[in-house]
Design goal:
Structural class: alpha+beta
Strand content: 35-45%
Strand order of the largest sheet: 1-2-4-3
CATH topology: Translation Initiation Factor IF3
CATH architecture: 2-Layer Sandwich
Helix content: 25-40%
CATH class: Alpha Beta
Shape: globular
Largest sheet: 4 strands, mixed
Number of strands: 4
Number of helices: 2
Number of domains: 1
Length: 80
């Protein structure tokens, strides 16, 4: 599968992160996003980050949280 790795740091999910991920989804169907310790990671924050990605990314996605990693799969075209 065409996969990419990405890390989120202490600033969390910023507009720049969203812009970078939207660009990455043009060429990749799956992105593995790991949260660094500085992001204040916990089970709850990982789920919140995943939901935030689902709302803010321009593509339709499915995600799965595995530990401190969010596996995001592009499932559709650009949202309208």
């Amino acid at each position: 599968m065409n996969s990419m790795k990405f890390q989120i740091g202490k600033n969390g999910i910023t507009d720049e992160v969203i812009k970078t991920l939207n660009t990455a989804f043009r060429n990749h169907k799956q992105i593995r996003i790991s949260a660094l310790k500085s992001s204040g990671r916990s089970k709850e924050t990982m789920e919140k980050m995943a939901e935030q990605l689902k709302r803010r990314l321009q593509y339709q996605i499915l995600y799965k949280v595995i530990g401190f990693t969010i596996v995001v799969n592009r499932r559709g075209m650009i949202k309208k």
